[in-house]
Amino acid sequence: MKFETPAGTNPIDRLKIVGKAINRVDGPMKITGTAPYAYERHDVAANQAYGYILGSAIAKGRIARIDSADAKAAHGVLAIVTTLDMPRLTLGRMNTASLFGGPDVQHYHQAIAVVVAETFEQARAAAQLLRVDYDRADGKFDLAAEAGSAPLVGGGGPTAPKENKVGDFAGAFAAAPVQLDATYRTPDESHAMMEPFATIAAWKGEMLTLWTSNQMIAWNKADVARTLGLKPENVRVDSPFIGGGFGGKLYTRADAILAALAAKAAGRPVRLAMQRPLMMNNATHRPGTIQRIRMGATKDGKIIAIAHESTSGNLPGGKPENAIQQTQILYAGANRLTSMRLAPLDLPEGNAMRAPGEASGLMALEIAMDEMAEKLGLDPVEFRIQNDTQVDPANPQRPFSKRQLVECLRRGSDLFGWRRRDARPGAMREGRWLIGMGMAAGIRNNLVAKSAARVRLSDRGIVTVETDMTDIGTGSYTIIAQTAAETMGVSIDKVVVKLGDSDFPISAGSGGQWGANSSTAGVYAACLNLREAVAQKLGLDATAANFEDGKVHDGHRSIRLGDAAKGGELVVEGVMEYGDLARQFQQSTFAGHFVEVAVDGLTGETRIRRMLAVCAAGRILNPKTARSQVIGAMTMGVGGALTEHLAVDPRFGLFVNHDLANYEVPVHADIPHQEVVFLDEVDDKSSPMKAKGVGELGLCGVAAAIANAVYNATGVRVRDYPMTLDKHL
Ligand code: MOS
């Protein structure tokens, strides 16, 4: 946990390169189509065959028989592996359902066979010839039907209390002069990333290499080894570019396992992408929730009691959607209750999707805050400001490392022109359009994770960074290059960044919005070690050495950085760890979201007109890539509010709308001008980078701000997402 140089300085604070809106260093590769995505890697292994996955046509039951005779005889077929051919695979640590199901089927479209052929079309055609006999069993697919009998589950492991209580909620709520008791529903949602799961697998003896698309390289390597019964050192995973993940690619998925099994069976490298119609049911999804919120306040708007109880469903062994966590810390209030119930369902596995927990929880909580403000006759911005807290309400000894929620709300309110809003629903009109303005607070925790990197210095003064960090389209390459350039005192074009290879030191990976801050901190740690190695090599005083303009100075001499590598490349590693820093301080990021909508008074069609997010998220490492993260997240919030919804067929237990035509995400025409403002913030408790994450924060609260704007426009309070037009007519 070394945040500073031997001289007691932090080179990042110079902010010559870090903190600047530098263009993506991988931009030209993206634009010219030369960034190597998994399925396009023709060059990595010769003689690649094609794999095609067969998904189960039932959600629950048993496979009685698979007849592959016709498929095997089909033109171009090299091998067929069915789940009945082999013993059940070990479950990965990060998986709830088997990635190769059967004979017992756990969910619809669980993979049950893979066909390998010379071409993709041959593999696909042969897969249609597989005859599968199922013994179908009844399953549970309807959250609402199961919610009543769903047991309480603690969020903090088996010994943690099942309900989280502070003070006396029931007593305080009963006595509260103003009360709200409302129930909100969020649907199952899909990551719906552009690039499907895809892997090229090749064996060399016992050694398996996977060129794949995955957010967490070390988790993936460990789970591939575990699932296939291999030694971890015999598995290499490489994922330098990822076409979107949103949490769906945190874990090993069926593409990796089936490509490996198929390559073994065919004796050739196999290229396999999960076909789009399998993506929604084969992969994980964000579980739907039913959330009851009760709130009691004094007449002048002080929250004295708050309860948030959430019910979600999952396969046996799965976790609940932690929709209550933000309610434990977002607002003050002496009497509190939060709890989760988990209904066993036979739908596909529910798991993390961008801002798991807060994204769903704020969809409910921030409508409740709007409803309560209205009951109190208070402006919703002021109501939130009145109930701000600077400490963890359950543990007043534990402050926030930085909490600028009030500033986010005030700045946002000014910039957005919130004063022009008429609080009376339906009061603002433009012809047949009803105009509404809504807002919500956003919070997402800032997690810090151990992260390591290797840095190399060449005699030409080139600094090469190697870490298994991933770039899921977020800009990791760029901020890591900025970090190394700043720390080593070189220009950014002297830095080469290599990511996503399990042969590199283990990083924090991309997840939970911890990636940017944590992975750059690891690179910073490695660069501090490189600085010491350079000083030693050049015989300079490490406590006085200054690295600038590609040179090292110690007050007496000025030497080219590359000279330290004249006798051979300098290679050092470094790792950043945090001890109990995260326990001492509550680390969170905050936002104020403001939205203007227009709702067609005749048809209910809802158009988003303006969006503003004011974010407080520590030091912003690159305002351009950070802004892109936030506008992407705001766009996702529009989908969450208005269109996104995995529709469950309760008879057969599948998500019916399992492609991008029927699972509607926003397109450009749905999105207006979006403005993003970052407050000046430096959080020295988060890492030597003093940064936090923004990638998930940008989503948190957006859907509720839209819901509140729709209410302001129409006077119809929709508590059931997505707010399709039928719900507010
Ligand atoms: Mo995020 S849901 O941890 O990729």
TrEMBL record:
Molecular function per GO: carboxylate reductase activity
Keywords: Oxidoreductase
UniProt KW Zinc keyword: no
Gene3D superfamilies: Aldehyde oxidase/xanthine dehydrogenase, a/b hammerhead (3.90.1170.50), Aldehyde oxidase/xanthine dehydrogenase, molybdopterin binding domain (3.30.365.10)
InterPro entries for the chain: Ald_Oxase/Xan_DH_a/b, Ald_Oxase/Xan_DH_a/b_sf, Ald_Oxase/xanthine_DH-like, AldOxase/xan_DH_MoCoBD1, AldOxase/xan_DH_MoCoBD2, AldOxase/xan_DH_Mopterin-bd_sf, PaoC-like
Keyword Zinc: no
UniProt domain Aldehyde oxidase/xanthine dehydrogenase a/b hammerhead: residue ranges: 32-138
Enzyme Commission number(s) from the entry: 1.2.99.6
UniProt cross-references to Pfam families, sorted A to Z: Ald_Xan_dh_C, MoCoBD_1, MoCoBD_2
PANTHER family in alphabetical order: ALDEHYDE OXIDOREDUCTASE MOLYBDENUM-BINDING SUBUNIT PAOC (PTHR11908:SF123), XANTHINE DEHYDROGENASE (PTHR11908)
Protein name: Aldehyde oxidoreductase molybdenum-binding subunit PaoC
Gene: paoC
